[in-house]
Fold:
Amino acid sequence: MANTLKNDLLIRACRQQPVERTPVWIMRQAGRYLPEYQAVRAKSDFMTMCRTPELAAEVTLQPVDIIGVDAAIIFSDILVIPEAMGMGLSFHEGRGPAFESPIRSRSDFARLREINAEQDLSYMLDALKLVRRELNGRVPLIGFAGAPWTLASYMVEGQGSRNFIEIKRMMYSEPALLHELLDRLSDAVIDFLTAQIAAGAQVVQVFDSWAGILPPQYFQVFSLPYLRKVVDGIKGLGVPIIVFAREAGHSFDQLSEIGADVLSVSWTEDLAEARTAVGDKVALQGNLDPCALFSTPEVIEREVKDVLRKAGSGGGHVFNLGHGILPKTPVDNVKALIEFVAKHSG
Amino acid sequence: MANTLKNDLLIRACRQQPVERTPVWIMRQAGRYLPEYQAVRAKSDFMTMCRTPELAAEVTLQPVDIIGVDAAIIFSDILVIPEAMGMGLSFHEGRGPAFESPIRSRSDFARLREINAEQDLSYMLDALKLVRRELNGRVPLIGFAGAPWTLASYMVEGQGSRNFIEIKRMMYSEPALLHELLDRLSDAVIDFLTAQIAAGAQVVQVFDSWAGILPPQYFQVFSLPYLRKVVDGIKGLGVPIIVFAREAGHSFDQLSEIGADVLSVSWTEDLAEARTAVGDKVALQGNLDPCALFSTPEVIEREVKDVLRKAGSGGGHVFNLGHGILPKTPVDNVKALIEFVAKHSG
Structure:
């Protein structure tokens, strides 16, 4: 399917093939910083937007049309998997997502429903199909899922957390139960990403947003093996795989060997050092500080040049932020970012 | 003064001298996990406790008596410097500290009062003198201050922050103003630590709690030079200096060369890799995950042995957590921790 794309820069950069210029997309690019997104969101709650393919498609396409990014990423949330497992997800304004009944014991774990993505997450697959049709090859479409460790962290904590005491308690005191949960989630993620690719996703990204709450030696035990399992499970499907293990730069070397095509680098890490750590085994994605977009075009241009310089000329590079774009980011600065990436990488 | 100490393990470990066993203290050891602390806190608000030498001394001594740590650290807060500068500090239960008028412009900066620690922070100096007297040489007394970058972050944000947009905006858009603020804060920190040492502090720790919100290249510009200035300013006073640049492991190598005696290592970093990065140039402090204390004595013993093994036998090691102890930590587990450190390092 990739050869029907009018703009396949992202696909080629992920595969470390030559590109005319560095492709750029933005984590959370379909989001609150855009007035056009806010207009849709004002009429529907977050989960309704996720569950309604027409609404999800509309906001997915906005940054392609308005900002000019080189990829669309389907509008959804990593928590749709635990939600489908029956965990009772709700979103509270200002407090983030929360689950009714967190997983704290083996009996909680036993309550989780077995899911099948084709049936239980069909709304997201329908949204992907709709976006693929409406994109009509303009840019590639990215699918995504949460990494097992990050999903488990939300499911055990029950909500966003500052100190992650509950998932750590399980990690230290009941590691066997946690491994069972992680294994189960890995299977669900593989099933879901496989279905997303069948529905039209041309690239997939796995978000291990809470990788950084693990001490390095436990990242090796509770995150890395499940990232590897997920990548193994979808590796043969022919689409590039991006892994974002946020703030796990301590393990770039091992991450570069799990079979992913691209590692996404947090803004808290040095992109040049990441390149040194991984050599040419993978392409890199990132890693502008999202806060830099609150400054001036002059500063943004300087920062873009710095990121491009650190990415180097060998090995693929996908320009992105080093974390999701923040809600009040000025839209003009985002447009300027896209222009500067083109200007200085072309 | 150190030679009058009955237990000078901390002093010797900081100086990388031989010790019979590894000394241990705990960041925030005088704090909410202790019922005896809560009893004092129930009768006085946080700032009243800081400002009343008898109350500050009482809670400072509690962990020495109850837990058996090898050092006392004076009960206070890093924000007493900006408070003395006239920023109107308040503490809201559950929301943390906040300043009435954050520093956002040059005119805000111009409003800051020049301070003199002997006059404006005499309450903390009096508390130090009182604790020194009551300790009577049982263990060393640690003084402390916030690092310039971390103080500036609080002063510009006005409160604890998730994304630190305001301090980043100043960093990207008005770096000259930020440098002036950091320089001014460095002088205040030097003055304050000098006064603390004169008042009886036998070790000092500089807390750069927000070092990790800086992209690595900007840590080099906005934090490291001011840490160096602070260390230079107090280096000649004869007491060991501990620097805790939280989540700035990317710069251990440079941090080991600013003249500090000890680097404190976050739990998000690998202590063995920190040792490799710094060689024997400094002692290391840390770095048990505070969440490990919510597990069982068996797990805590295993984790203690792991930290001690990674600390290695060459170079000094001060056992500590890799961040402050959490409010609901079981006290018995803290006592067990102290015993395990003695058992496995003796």
